[in-house]
Predict the structure.
Amino acid sequence: MDTQAIYFDNNGTTALDQRVLETMLPYLSAQSGNATSRHIFGRSSRQAIERAREQVADATGAHPSQVIFTGSGTEADNLAICGITAKNGFEKIAVSAIEHPAITRAAQSMKAHGVVIESIAADTQGKITIDALQDLLSSGNDDKSIGLISVMLANNETGAIQDLASIAEIARKQHAFVHTDAVQALGKMKVDFAELNVHAMSLSSHKISGPQGAGALILDKRVDIQPLLLGGGQERGLRSGSENVAAIVGFGAACELISRELIQRIGSVRQLRDQLEKGLVKLGAVIFGHGADRLANTSFFAFEGIEGETLVMALDRKGFAVASGSACSSDSTEPSHVLMAMGVDEDLARGAIRVSLSNVNTAAQIEAFLLVLEGELSRLRRLTAIAV
Ligand code: PLP
């Protein structure tokens, strides 16, 4: 797309890294085989997928045999929640109050099968507290125990990072399986499946400068799981369907880049985010989850009396692409469920704007953004004053 606009919506999706594109091109431009075929074309696709599996595993502290490729992060989340719950016959599961709809809606769908869904509360900074989890695991007004808990590693809206290793330790003591949605964490912080000590972890390619159309569930092989898709038995029978070879190859290449560049990427975006938030505070913004350990690229904020959608559109007209609330559910006018779980006032929550940076953004872009934002805020406040 040919536009001069500046892109500040990297938690929504990222630009495809040119180096990733290069690795994908041969699988898009030449004859490629179905990875299940025995001939040379099929074997070459199979080899490419297995190489990508190693790259994903290397970047996430997993073993290649634990990587199940899916078509998206959403599919990995659905597979984890529905597949583990159904296969193990769990009667009760718990998901945190700040999860992405790929988790909450998958969990809700299990209600139809008689599964009880509990919510794990967040504090005012968007953190899942150990106390809230402990209370939930030890309480219960029925004799059903919680079979699976799901808590995301980093939140897509606030960027708040959860203490997953402690959460997993507590859950394991109660014999519950633990899943984490690491879709936003990957590429923005260290993600290590073995260290986190969880049973399952979801990933998505297009959040890390890889292509859309690939994701993965990292799964401890001792966990029984039921596939969502039935057919040719690809991915050890857990995800039937001919593999999207080019997208998987791109996902692997993007993971390899993270392994090499993570520290430098985090450092550069943190500087930009700090510059941005200094300016935002001067303009009177409330920054959500400010006191929490957060992803270095994410800033979620609001200005009292200014509607988020209106400001997003105004900024778009001035050439800045930012998100209001969660990009994945931006067709909804409801205030963010994440902010509601944090106890934020509903009116203020309706003003929420998210800036999510990448290492291609620059200090000059932040400076220009703050100037435009100041102008738009004054204009919108004048308009509001006239309307009142
Ligand atoms: N989980 C989180 C935390 C996300 O932010 C997103 C997308 O924004 C998803 C899951 C869904 O991933 P995908 O877009 O690959 O389906």
About this structure: Residues 157 and 326 are 6 Å apart (CA to CA). The chain has two domains: 6-15+262-380, 18-257. Residues 72-74, 77, 100, 102, 152, 156, 181, 183-184, 204, 206, 215, 328 surround pyridoxal-5'-phosphate (CB under 6 Å).
